[in-house]
Amino acid sequence: MRKENRNDCDMNRRGFLKTAAVTGAALCVPTVLSKTMATEKAANSSSGTSVTVGSGMAAIRNHRTLGSGRASMEVSAMGFGCMGLNYHRSQHPDKKQAIALVHEAVERGVTLFDTAESYGPYKNELLMGEALKGYGDRVFVTSKFGHKFVNGVQVKSEEDSSPANIRKVCEESLRRLGVETLGMFYQHRADPDMPVEVVAETVRELIREGKVLHFGLCEVNADTIRRAHAIQPVTAVQSEYHLMHRTPEESVLPLCAELGIGFVPYSPINRGFLGGAITEYTQFDATNDNRQTLPRFTPEAIRANLRIVEVLHAFGRTRGYTAAQVALAWLMNKHPWIVPIPGTTKLSHLEENLRAADIHFTAEEMRNLEEAVAAIPVTGSRYNAEQEAKVQK
Ligand SMILES: NC(=O)c1ccc[n+]([C@@H]2O[C@H](COP(=O)([O-])OP(=O)(O)OC[C@H]3O[C@@H](n4cnc5c(N)ncnc54)[C@H](OP(=O)(O)O)[C@@H]3O)[C@@H](O)[C@H]2O)c1
């Protein structure tokens, strides 16, 4: 769907929300409306009409819409990827500091927080449940199902998107997060033994039951998206997308545009690499970092790929932006229905990242940046063979 049509959808959605709120036709509408109003407080602050966010403070002042029609979801233009607060990104702050950072993000207008059953496993959801206690009417928390666990240990050779497991994960995620409804429930990886139609039907039932607001899919191909969307409209596809991994542009993003589905790029700074703080000497915590398993994060690959980071530095230097800001702003300038979810453990990085939402690149700037990056071959694949086998081609 093109932008103009999408705006029409937004208008239709607003109309729907009004009608539904009056008639009580939609279970979750009041929650959606209040979340929208809460962020408008942050949005208004730039004109000095609200005390929620100071006018010079780094904050998200714009919303974006993921999905369309009844499946649409209005969220802050940038979300927060929660995984690294206590999982897979090496050293992390203690619980009190992590919670304080999440509160900063909420106060600065972020309304989309992304977690998953598998982050920890479980401990990231538990942290977010504690962090977002009392904020449930202001933000959406999204989670994911589909990995297989036996006694708390992931069975990496298999996935489990059986209806029984989707329902079990949903109940457990709701309990750990301390909410009545998940903002979005994503399938984490496709399950070769479970047709996506069955998955979509199960999530459809959970939406009808008021346990889930919206349906999302991760790392799936265009055929799967189309089949799922025919059963239960998909609000967003969440897949890896950044200047060093542009595969979604081949068929997934065009299909999202055609069907009016939003896109949430995960690892939008390429797991920190495009921020410029990682070098061949960086030591990843052997007990808590999956980057050491990724071919793109060997010392040799890092040394070769730093040329790409240097392009971002050079591009940003003449404009007053950091490399991380260039990486995030590039994504956000690609389409108005893209909502990246960078993760961080630091207030300084949160502020830096949120400011990227205000950056506008001209079409020529976008082209120049893309050409300069594309001129440098990327060394090392993004996933090892086991992880690569799980993403749909
Ligand atoms: N659906 C999926 O399969 C999937 C897979 C992976 C991730 N995800 C989601 O995506 C989220 C983000 O992904 P990610 O953590 O892999 O990657 P990311 O957001 O690209 O990068 C996070 C890393 O970048 C660093 N960083 C953040 N801002 C920075 C800045 N301004 N300058 C320099 N470094 C910066 C962070 O370190 P500091 O703490 O030092 O800032 C952190 O180590 C996750 O939290 C998760 O919710 C989903």
From TrEMBL:
Protein name per its UniProtKB record: Aldo/keto reductase
Keyword Oxidoreductase: yes
Coiled-coil ranges (or none): none
Pfam families in the cross-refs: Aldo_ket_red (PF00248), TAT_signal (PF10518)
Keywords tagged on the record: Oxidoreductase
Keyword S-adenosyl-L-methionine in record: no
InterPro entries registered for this protein in UniProt: Aldo-Keto_reductase (IPR050791), NAD(P)_OxRdtase_dom_sf (IPR036812), NADP_OxRdtase_dom (IPR023210), TAT_signal (IPR006311), TAT_signal_bac_arc (IPR019546)
Location of the NADP-dependent oxidoreductase domain: 78-372
